[in-house]
From TrEMBL:
Keywords: Aminoacyl-tRNA synthetase, ATP-binding, Cytoplasm, Ligase, Nucleotide-binding, Protein biosynthesis, RNA-binding. One of its GO terms (cellular component) is cytosol. InterPro entries: aa-tRNA-synth_Ic, Rossmann-like_a/b/a_fold, S4_RNA-bd_sf, Tyr-tRNA-ligase, Tyr-tRNA-ligase_bac-type, Tyr-tRNA-ligase_bac_1. It comes from the Bacteria. A motif ('HIGH' region) lies at residues 44-53. Gene3D superfamilies: HUPs, RNA-binding S4 domain, Tyrosyl-Transfer RNA Synthetase. ATP binds at K239. PANTHER family: TYROSINE--TRNA LIGASE, MITOCHONDRIAL, TYROSYL-TRNA SYNTHETASE. It catalyses: tRNA(Tyr) + L-tyrosine + ATP = L-tyrosyl-tRNA(Tyr) + AMP + diphosphate + H(+). This is Tyrosine--tRNA ligase. Transmembrane segments: none annotated. The keyword Cytoplasm applies.
Amino acid sequence: MSTYQSELLNLLSSRGYIHQMTDAEGLDALAAKQVVPGYVGFDATAPSLHVGSLVQIMLLRRLQQAGHKPVVLMGGGTTRIGDPTGRDESRKMLSDETIEDNIASIRKVFRRLLTFGDGPTDAVMVNNHDWLGQLGYIQLLQEVGTHFTVNRMLTFDSVKLRLDREQPMTFLEFNYMILQGYDFRHLSKEMDVRLQMGGSDQWGNIVNGVELGRRMDGQELFGVTTPLLTTASGAKMGKTAAGAVWLNEDMLPNYDFWQYWRNCDDADVGRFLRLFTDVSLEEIAKLETLEGAAINDAKVRLANEVTALVRGPEAAAAAEATARETFAGGGLGADLPTLDIPADGTTVMEALKALNFAASNGEAKRKVGEGAVKLDDAPVGDPNQIVTLKSGTTAKLSLGKKKHAILRR
């Protein structure tokens, strides 16, 4: 493991955040002698970010912990364009009102993980629509367009992969990398931001911004990317068979969020503790040595720590208590996801889909056929079985050993 002179790069390196850096020596020297404002951009395509974005939010948290200034860039402007990176099709266009509502909703999670204010290392949140929305097209072509060649842009993975698959890319999307580069240049001029961070798929866009700042202003800028995050099974972080693991509580119940971490692969526990919690490296090293059933203690610690950071300590405590009561005591934990059913009842199949336990009728039927579905701990043999309840009563619907929900009327 490399040893740096700055606390920032030592912290990022020791906890596994660094994949690529544009100029490690230069950034290390700068971070050792002064406060470095650094930013990560987040587009507002939904009312919540999901777990796949959490490592980038934690990057900003680490930046602040090391005595530097986090800048959260909300993509009010770039959301209107759509980043083609890693996508096979164009992003759905959202209304201005929807984008603003999404930004307001997304803001909540940052308030938990960062300290905002007016101090030199306090976090700030900015919206790139404030400057991109004022940028004239002719002005953009004259000032910025001359620094980009189509030849180079065609070599970027975000463009190349789409074209290789013969998937159409609109001229609108083709401009995304130019606008992202302009964001970095604008922030460096207006807020002295010297560092952009992001996932490994953003490397090309970040390098564009570094070069644009040098060409237009003679400014030395830096970029850092994190490794592509997958689970030990190879699945992309933040995605499950039931859908995205959202960071906001109104998009995913606290218990489901807690369970996502509790159910992680044994091989992922140490890495996730380093990336997504503030548990010390010494303690993580001890937790990584646990074997057999004892590794579950480390998973509970992981689930509690991440849930407390993202949802609050009360949410973590309630989720753990529910898990303990549901699994150990055979009871019905109060924090389980709930589904209100009508007076005339609902089918097991519809309940499974409504709870995101199954994505389709076919999957629900398959789970029932496998004997994985239970109602009040009794196996369900027919996916079309009607569940009816008296007013004020509840029942427990289970999928396998780890997914449970309360049906109520």
